[in-house]
Amino acid sequence: MLPDITVFGEYTYLATELMWGTVALALLAYAGAWRAAARTVLVLYPFALAWDWYTLTVGVFEIPLRTGVELLGVPLEEHIFMVLVPAMVVGTHESLRKLRGPAGAGRADESGPEAGERV
Fold this sequence. Notes:
Blueprint: H1 12-31, H2 34-57, E1 70-71, E2 74-75, H3 76-100
Helix pairs in contact: 1-3, 2-3
């Protein structure tokens, strides 16, 4: 059974973002991928904002357990989400790359041809 975190009331969504944001920050710190995450967020943010604004405006979804603070017609928590998700993706990707080690260290680099494969 999942824990009931609705005890945070209007701060429930924000509390979950703080938890997952900590994970994203840890991954970015481990991988040293701050600049890559920032670039990715800057490129994706305008698209995410337009998408979020539109889907909220037409009623695709609602967010009941939130602070009620809005910026540009979008809840504050959604702005955080639009930064958090790409940051976590980049942090995860770069952490996996770091764990894999340098290309050519006995493992094929997934971005290039397999060992012995003709190009």
